Amino acid sequence: MAQDGPKIDDDAPVPGVAPYDGPAGGWGALRGVAVAIKDQMGASADTRALLQMNQPDGFDCPGCAWPDPRHTSSFEFCENGAKAVTWEATPKRVDPDFFASHSVSDLWDWSDHRLEDAGRLTQPLRYDPATDHYTPIGWDEAMARIGAGLNALDHADRAEFYCSGRASNEAAFLYQLFARAFGTNNFPDCSNMCHEATSVGLAKSIGLGKGSVTLEDFDHADAIFCIGHNPGTNHPRMLSTLAAAAKRGAPIIVANPMRERGLERFKSPQHPTEMLAPGATRLASAYHQVRVGGDLPMVQGIMKALFAADAADLAADGAGLIDRTFIAEHTVGYEALRAEVEAQDWAALEQGSGLTRAAMESMAQVYAKARNVIICYGMGITQHRHGTQNVQQIANLLLLRGNFGRPGAGICPLRGHSNVQGDRTVGITEAPGEDMLARLDARFGITSPRKHGHNAVDALAAMASGEARALIALGGNLAVAMPDPQACFAAFRKLDLAVHILTKFNRSCLLPARETIILPCLGRTELDMQAGGPQWVTVEDSMSMVHASRGRLKPASDDLKSEPAIVAAMAKATLPASPIDWDGLVADYDRIRDGIAAVYPDFHDFNQRVRVPGGFRLTVGPSQRHWPTPDGKAHLLTAGDAPAQDDRLMLATIRSHDQYNTTIYGLNDRYRGITGRRDILFMNAADMDRLGIAHGDRVDVVAAPDRILAGQTAIRHDIAAGSVAAYYPEANGLLPLDAHDRQSGTPAYKTIPVDIRPAA
Ligand SMILES: Nc1nc2c(c(=O)[nH]1)N[C@H]1C(S)=C(S)[C@@H](COP(=O)(O)OP(=O)(O)OC[C@H]3O[C@@H](n4cnc5c(=O)[nH]c(N)nc54)[C@H](O)[C@@H]3O)O[C@H]1N2
Ligand SMILES: Nc1nc2c(c(=O)[nH]1)N[C@H]1C(S)=C(S)[C@@H](COP(=O)(O)OP(=O)(O)OC[C@H]3O[C@@H](n4cnc5c(=O)[nH]c(N)nc54)[C@H](O)[C@@H]3O)O[C@H]1N2
Ligand SMILES: [Mo]
């Protein structure tokens, strides 16, 4: 029977560390919401916003990209969605007094939590190097300075246009139009740090870098695999879906180095009867603690066992376990894949994955027994040097039994930001196709650059070398989100122009360029009033559903603008001779949507179709067994070189339950038993014993002589041997900028070889 928490009873107590025995969800989640409301909204909380979340006529929750059930109007409760919303709808403000009393140097010493907790931005700001303070500036002057700064560049490619994944389709589309009209395809994007391995990997294997399943498919799956993601914290609404599958007896197979409560047990805060009953729904039917970075050999092991079972079945006059009709009709590459997998040696697969052969065989058995299988995965798969190969081996496993294009089967990458997928769909890409550019040019009368631009790693490298001189950031906290703060912070400080379009002040704003401007924008929850009346926006979830989002709250200040309005104002100030009617587009977002439809045929009749409650689904070829690859086939792809074995411990950076990426809501990580602190290094008991480290010892985590995360508290945790984990972003200094997946550029945030030694 699975053990439910770290076994630390024999150890001396460590402050803020105690096993968490409850299920995911449950009363703890309800208390979490109450705390978020009290901390952020105060006693006179206006909680109406929470009730409009994910309603057909409300706003899309900015918390994650998990889809909404299509045909319910009941309130979908989610603790972390509530945190995201209260964080945005808080009455706290950073106003001119705040910036008059705190210099940039003072604020540098504030924690990331304290910086954002100070409240919402209220007006445009400009950094004054003479006083080291931000001071208010009017919108017109801000725009004039941005226009002048961009026009002072000797080439458009010296500007980087970063996009974080909360921007709506409308904002993102205008943003790429502006950057391309200006003359560059430099689009570093948060997706580059996240699911780029999916975009690149799946595009080559099934022809489309997106998931193939819908939410309804989960009702028909005979088995679900959850590899490298932590839904209890990062996609809490997914737990209802998993619980429903578990209740009807579908096995849920987990592969994760850490025992995550949200994959083990769940009590739905949605159901009063469940809340009052003892116990909880058990989720994982089997939990395999793969070692950090061990997924590629694990999936190869599952395939090896499948091929062996297939051969045995054929020998016994069975029909075999491989879907040969599907393979013949729909795929290429079968023989090469089978040869590569069969050539693997079990001892190496066991060592690489940290799992026994029997464990991998049991996974293969569940996989082969189920008619329809969904495999879900997250950052535990993508954020590795072999992220693209990891993704492709998962696709291989599914293809071998034809698990695409029928109900209850398919691949399910769990996207991060609520519109990260949509932003890419509507043009935020450094490598645009010719068709799209031609249609963009025809519609808007511009000549887009054809030269491909920078992704996030390229952009930071260009900023560090001095090649890039300007950065415009539509949301996010790029300097903190990227690896290698040593290099990234310096790169930011070298810029001539930095513009941050944000709801909240963050550390990236504390790295001033020669000219630094902060533009405060409306958030998802707020009413967006333009010349043509109230506007709404659209987003695309993880399952390619496009739907509307309508904010209704009074904006945090009268001096905020919407993201589309800000982008249009920057464009007008930078490109006074532009043929584009920027004001017209912003007056009525239907016109932006008509533009999207003109450039992307899949958005035909966009304005009509998105007005249907629940929206519509974009074309996902692989869901219909249509493979938009050059040869029209799905590709079984070999992995090539295996991840290099490293005798050192492998560190993964992870999110706590109280954080949203670089936004730190609080210092607890409830499901992992951590309260009030983040200086934790999660370790395996055997590793600690071997290294002579006791529970609660202060240690330094050493990736290289100049890459040390000092003064962490090592704790015994239920994590795979050879693996350690620490929180992001604190641990980002351990990772150099060039440690990334060669094919997709995704930073290897979850394969950082380290040594642990007593704190200096
Ligand atoms: N509340 C909240 N919600 C969020 C976010 C947030 O920060 N807070 N972030 C959003 C974003 S942008 C994203 S991308 C998603 C992220 O959602 P997830 O993909 O769940 O992200 P992580 O917390 O980074 O890592 C998830 C899991 O990967 C496991 N893991 C680490 N290394 C490995 C490995 O080598 N192999 C395997 N199999 N597993 C491994 C960890 O133990 C952890 O359970 O969530 C989104 N939703
Ligand atoms: N070590 C390590 N590093 C990682 C990761 C990891 O797992 N480990 N994960 C990576 C991943 S998956 C991602 S996606 C990136 C995230 O990278 P980013 O997307 O750049 O970072 P966020 O922390 O999500 O951005 C937070 C800021 O967004 C602003 N914001 C919030 N809402 C809005 C809005 O509606 N509009 C605008 N304009 N601004 C808004 C707020 O001002 C806030 O300060 O980090 C990556 N970095
Ligand atoms: Mo992400």
TrEMBL record:
Keywords: 4Fe-4S, Iron, Iron-sulfur, Metal-binding, Molybdenum, Oxidoreductase. Residues 1-20 are annotated as: Disordered. Its cofactor is [4Fe-4S] cluster; Mo-bis(molybdopterin guanine dinucleotide). The keyword Hydrolase does not apply. Residues 649-752 form the Molybdopterin dinucleotide-binding domain. Pfam families: Molybdopterin, Molydop_binding. Gene3D superfamilies: 2.40.40.20, 3.40.50.740, Dimethylsulfoxide Reductase, domain 2. Residues 1-10 have a biased composition (Basic and acidic residues). InterPro entries: Asp_de-COase-like_dom_sf, MopB_CT_YdeP, MoPterin_dinucl-bd_dom, Mopterin_OxRdtase, Mopterin_OxRdtse_a_bac, Prok_molybdopt-oxidoreductase, YdeP_MopB. It comes from the Bacteria. Residues 120-500 form the Molybdopterin oxidoreductase domain. Belongs to the prokaryotic molybdopterin-containing oxidoreductase family. NCBIfam families: Fdhalpha-like. This is FdhF/YdeP family oxidoreductase.
